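Exercise: predict the structure of this protein bound to S-adenosylmethionine.
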Amino acid sequence: MTNFYDQLTPFFHLVYKDWNASVHRQGEQLSALIKTEWSSSKKILDVSCGIGTQAIGLAMQGYSVTASDLSEKAIERAKQEAHCRNVEVSFSVCDMRKAHVYHGSGFDVVVSGDNSLPHLLTDEDILLALNQMTACLAEGGGCVISVRDYEREERGRNLLKPYGIRMANGNRYLLFQVWDFEGEHYDYTFFVVEENLATREVRTHAMRSKYYAISTGKLSELMLEAGLQNVRRLDGIFFQPVLIGTRGA
Ligand SMILES: C[S@@+](CC[C@H](N)C(=O)[O-])C[C@H]1O[C@@H](n2cnc3c(N)ncnc32)[C@H](O)[C@@H]1O
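Solution:
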């Protein structure tokens, strides 16, 4: 899995039509949610920040952001992306299943954005991560998780998930995934076809990983089991469903 994101890191921004605009938009959307639910929040921890989409966006909104990820390459790039935008985020490498051991507690909000938790393939592992995320929170602090809505996804094999065509640095990129389900899990290959428009040379990058297609209902149950209260699913405020919960006093 680490290898998957290490390989995907140079192309990750191409997942979005305009990554820069998404960083700003996601920062604004998450900030609006945080202000509504946990209004005096200042300190945020992102436990699966990747190249920094939510972490940089939130720092741009004025929060003090600490962020980590399992992928060393993603963290290297996140540091560069923050630096060239003059944004301060404390980035480091950490497995979210050890978030509390590594980061300690006292955070107002803990975030895991864009379907990162389902990379953990069992309920036990997801619960372990949720327990650690909850322990990172100050009393009354909030947990924000965004995930794919797997109840709306078709099951089967050879499922094609197109992302589209992007132009960058004189290259044309075609991005798509192919999914193969087995029970509640699926293997997927992320294809990035890179065409140099000057030389017409074509390179195909194929990266493989696995996901647990956990439902938001099951994930909500695990959040409650981890000690979070007032767990709710919010739709229409972000590009994916958002699950939130609050650490009790
Ligand atoms: C789809 S990406 C989302 C990254 C980021 N939140 C964003 O939206 O740009 C999923 C991320 O989860 C990270 N990840 C997967 N398992 C992890 C774990 N056990 N601990 C920390 N990060 C993990 C991956 O390295 C990857 O960066």
